[in-house]
Amino acid sequence: MPEICRFYGIIIKMFFNEHNPPHFHAEYGSAEVLIEIETMAVIAGSFPPRALGLVTEWASQHRDELLSLWDDACTQSPLHKIAPL
Description:
Layout: E1 3-7, E2 10-13, E3 23-28, E4 31-36, E5 42-45, H1 49-61, H2 63-74
Antiparallel strand pairs: 1-2, 2-3, 3-4, 4-5
């Protein structure tokens, strides 16, 4: 799973050929969460509240880029890095 960003100890990743809805994975220590790109809703996992706030703030700033990367991942095109928070 390619890493697309890293900030404050949080790692953001996206799988190739993933299931819908469009989402990304975030890891912080042993915690992992899946976040839907359109709504910023947690669809699986759990995260410390402060870290989740940072992730949703970052994702809100980069929603269009994340959706573009989702399209690239669906076609197994190379994924670029997104600027950190």
